[in-house]
Specification:
459 residues; alpha/beta; 7-stranded mixed sheet; 17 strands; binds zinc ion
Length: 459
């Protein structure tokens, strides 16, 4: 056995060491850089409401090196875009990939364990995310740290995953998935670090540090009541001021940020006071709170509203449109949220609050229709360019807020420009004119992530 291992180490060294030496000594024996030149495309760069017409994009390895009207690159593989529209790869800023079962957030209450949910997550991340053009996702509550690592190491096919790891929730909060009569927070979700049940400053500090130690890129805290949980009416406050401040203190120490689950004025304002940067949901907030967010932005504080359009406007539109796995009480809460969502979007747009889009669509009922969150943004009053910006350019900016914990720190994400990762899509048509075409998979001609082509129907 030992002899076998040492033999394999020798074989390994034979292949690896000469390459390493060549790299270190700067010898020019390496093959020419791996370049792809995509010509004749009209580009949505992730921000501008206007397409840049008749452009070419030169990709080298995993990133973009040049964008312009006339680029020549000898030896590059040339792909004629034939007038198609290029956009950055889409970024879902609110996913829960460890809940991809028929039961959604009730996953671990019924028949599933972590292995089963992980396998379903892996398949969804390939088929329902990457192969539909979602090249990055921010997983915001759930222990997807190992899955994120597996994708990063090319052991799984899927989008780049930024993860909060387990969510920090107070006892009885939106992340407490235990049974009603549990004496201690020792349910399965806690055991597998889907959530950390924290009460008090010391608990928060320990859980946040532990989570980051295990690979979390930012921290999610439950700051108010939720729809899909059992013990917490929507109106309640979750984390105390002291608990939120403790979470922010730790993330500041690590150079990353806190995102909160919250719906109403009291929880949003407590978060704003504490230094939280990413505000999820918020469908019951008043105009005063929205104005405060806009003002804080102008004063230099970088905060963002994270809009889960489909799950509020469409899915929570009325009692019968809600997922089957919701109980009667959960559906009642959903109706309340659905009513507020359109109003919140109107106010955020009116006051120019920096916004990202995140589907919050998980579980078998929703996993294959995630992009409908983008078209929903248009139904809620945004332009197609704004809807795409929420899912590309703006999203990429927020991913970078992970600072030293950013798992993909070398280049920009969510934009088409030199020194951005080569994550891009080609559409047969112009989604800025007809946003619904992004739902038609036959119109998605090319998917590239990290310089690798996963779909190309133009050959
Ligand atoms: Zn969520």
């Amino acid at each position: 056995m030992l002899r076998n291992i040492s033999m394999w180490i020798c074989v390994f060294m034979l292949f690896i060491v000469p390459a390493a030496i060549a790299q270190e000594s700067g010898e020019s024996q390496e093959p020419a850089p791996n370049q792809v030149l995509i010509t004749n495309v009209n580009i949505f760069d992730g921000f501008s409401p206007k397409l840049a017409m008749n452009q070419s994009v030169l990709i080298e390895g995993n990133h973009i090196v040049e964008v312009g009207p006339d680029i020549s690159a000898e030896g590059a593989r040339v792909i004629d875009g034939a007038g198609r529209t290029m956009t950055p790869g889409l970024i879902d800023m609110h996913s829960h990939v460890t809940f991809m079962t028929p039961e959604g957030t009730n996953t671990f209450t019924y028949e599933w364990d972590f292995g089963g949910s992980g396998a379903l997550a892996a398949q969804a991340l390939r088929d329902d995310y990457l192969m539909k053009g979602i090249t990055s996702a921010r997983d915001i509550a759930g222990n997807s740290r190992g899955i994120a690592t597996a994708i990063q190491r090319n052991l799984l096919i899927g989008p780049r995953l930024y993860t909060s790891g387990g969510v920090l929730s107070h006892t009885g909060g939106h992340g407490d998935w235990g049974a009603k009569n549990d004496a201690e927070p020792n349910d399965y979700g806690v055991l597998i670090q889907q959530s950390y049940i924290v009460d008090g400053r010391e608990d928060v500090i320990r859980a946040a540090r532990r989570n980051i130690r295990g690979g979390a890129d930012f921290i999610k805290v439950m700051a108010g009541g939720g729809v899909s949980s059992f013990f917490d009416p929507i109106e309640i406050l979750g984390a105390t001021k002291e608990e939120l401040e403790a979470a922010v203190e730790i993330t500041n120490d690590y150079g990353t940020y806190v995102a909160i689950h919250a719906y109403h004025d009291k929880s949003y304002n407590r978060g704003l006071d504490a230094g939280v940067r990413s505000f999820e949901h918020g469908f019951l907030v008043s105009e005063d709170t929205v104005k405060r967010m806009a003002k804080m932005q102008k004063n230099g504080a970088e905060i963002v509203w994270s809009f889960q359009c489909f799950m509020s406007v469409n899915s929570f539109g009325d009692y019968d449109s809600m997922p089957d796995f919701f109980t009667h009480e959960q559906k009642i809460k959903g109706v309340k949220v659905g009513k507020g969502a359109r109003n919140a979007a109107k106010l955020m747009k009116k006051h120019g609050v920096f916004t990202i889009g995140g589907a919050d669509m998980f579980g078998i009922p929703f996993k294959d229709m995630i992009k409908e969150d983008i078209t929903c943004n248009v139904e809620a009053g945004y332009t197609p360019a704004e809807a795409l910006k929420h899912w590309t350019g703006n999203a990429g900016i927020v991913l970078k807020w992970s600072g030293p914990l950013d798992p993909y720190p070398t280049y920009a994400i969510g934009t088409i420009k030199p020194d951005a990762y080569a994550d891009m899509l080609l559409w047969d048509g112009n989604p800025l004119e007809d946003i619904n075409l992004i739902l038609d998979e036959s119109k998605l001609s090319l998917i590239m992530k990290d310089g690798v082509i996963y779909k190309n129907t133009m050959q």
